[in-house]
Amino acid sequence: GDSKPTMAESLVFRASMKAHNGWVTAISTTPNPSPDTENMIVSASRDKTLLVWNLLRQEGNFGEPRKSLKGHSHFVQDVVVSSDGQFALSASWDGTLRLWDLNTGSTTRQFYGHTKDVLSVAFSVDNRQIISGSRDKTIKLWNTLGDCKFTIGSGSAEEGHTEWVSCVRF
């Protein structure tokens, strides 16, 4: 018979990495890793920060935080890394999105327009468009300059969602 290992049999716990002072709400890696970004992950937390991790894969020290990204005034709910690994996009309960330069650790853009907590964000495949979902029951489409180009409204089912938008993807 065919005796391929199941996923549960092939997964091996390697390490626990601790640095946040609150719940970790999301983690992201770059979808197309290069030698510069293959060992990087970004984590979001209720401590209002994001951490850029360098994965070391060493016994007893699997990874360490390389940068702390600070700027949100409330929980960071979601994070996604651009396909080139140069930028991260975060969603926060402060009602904003932020675009971060992962080389400098600084915010390059803030996105204003949601009236409640932003729960989910995503980049388009070419990194030129951004989508966000919020507790304000809207989905917003943005360019990378921070301009909201389109909103799927709230209110009635004909206009959009009647409850929170908890996850968006391209």
Automatic annotation (TrEMBL):
Annotated WD repeat ranges: 17-55, 69-110, 111-143
Pfam family, one: WD40
Alphabetical UniProt keywords: Repeat, WD repeat
InterPro entries attached to this UniProt entry: RACK1-like, WD40/YVTN_repeat-like_dom_sf, WD40_PAC1, WD40_repeat_CS, WD40_repeat_dom_sf, WD40_rpt
GO MF terms, alphabetically ordered: ribosome binding; translation regulator activity
The keyword Repeat is annotated on this UniProt entry: yes
Membership in a protein family: Belongs to the WD repeat G protein beta family. Ribosomal protein RACK1 subfamily.
Protein name: Guanine nucleotide-binding protein subunit beta-like protein
Annotated organism of origin: Cryptomonas curvata
Upper lineage: Eukaryota, Cryptophyceae, Cryptomonadales, Cryptomonadaceae, Cryptomonas
